[in-house]
Amino acid sequence: MFSPEGPSLRELAVQALSSVERGYDLLAPKFDRTPFRTPDAVLDAVGSALRRTGPYGAGLDLCCGTGAGVGVLAGVCRERVTGVDFSAGMLDVARQQVTPTGPPVSWVRADARALPFAPAFDLVVSFGAFGHFLPRELPGLFAQVRSVLRPGGCFAFPVVAPPRPGSPGYWMLLGFDTVMRVRNALWRPPFVMYYRAFRLGDVRRELTGAGFRVELQALPEFGRRPDGSPRVRLVMARLPDRPRRPR
Q1: Which among 124, 83, 132, 128 has a CA at the least distance from the CA of 210?
Q2: Which residues form the Methyltransferase domain (predicted)?
Q3: Which segments of 16-62 are extended strands (E)?
Q4: Which of 6, 57, 199, 204 could form a disulfide linkage to 2, CB 3.0–4.6 angstroms apart?
């Protein structure tokens, strides 16, 4: 799962016993050589889907990490692109290695649960970050996203179909989440990273409650499961346009 240039077992253990922020600061120099980075195939597929609905004005990559998603935004946004993350180490790597062509790019250190922006964005994306939020945090998180979007703005992120119960993938994710829960029961500070906590049905309900109109688009690049359902979907949560004033 890890390349020879990736983190050692000892480095991963130190990260896992740290806070989420400190853990990612430590992992940042080698993060892109781990399976935690969003694969290029997913980034490319999301970029293709957004190009079909764009272009957009200003874009925000929420929990941007080392900046892989900023390249997606740079391809569909015309005004500017911003990456926001609470790990200073991840942002340092992003600043050094992300040089997309297109609109100007800026980096901001902040918590996604308390975003320091006015309603200044037309598109917000996020890749692979939602396992770091507990289900009870979703209403506040989605309210924060809404607060930084302009009328008619869009919040987009990919969701992979969960593995079938009893499959190897199912047991792997269940085992990982169990280990994390035991770790957090025995060690402080907690390290929130639960792959099975972000459920599409709950997400749709919370997005709707936050005022979004939710659409699901299959990403055809990843095909379908034996039951015919898409392997990967793109959630497109849109805000209503500003009401027109009567003449």
Answers
A1: 124
A2: 60-153
A3: 56-62
A4: 6
57 belongs to a structural domain: yes
Residue 76 lies in a domain: yes
Instruction: Report how far residue 203's alpha carbon sits from residue 196's, in angstroms, rounded to the nearest whole number.
Output: 12
* The residue type at 41: A
Pairing mode of beta strands 149-160, 56-62: unpaired
Residues with Cβ within 8 Å of 74's Cβ and at least 6 positions away in sequence, in order, are: 59, 81, 100, 101, 102, 103, 105
Q: How far is CA 166 from CA 169, 173, 215, in A?
A: 8, 11, 29
Q: Is residue 247 part of a domain?
A: no
Write out the residue range of the structural domain in which residue 138 sits. Answer: 9-238
- CB of 157 closer than 8 Å to CB of 126: yes
End-to-end Cα spacing for the chain: 61
- Residue 243 domain flag: no
- pLDDT tens-digit series, residues 196-241: 767 888 899 999 999 999 999 999 999 999 989 999 999 999 999 8
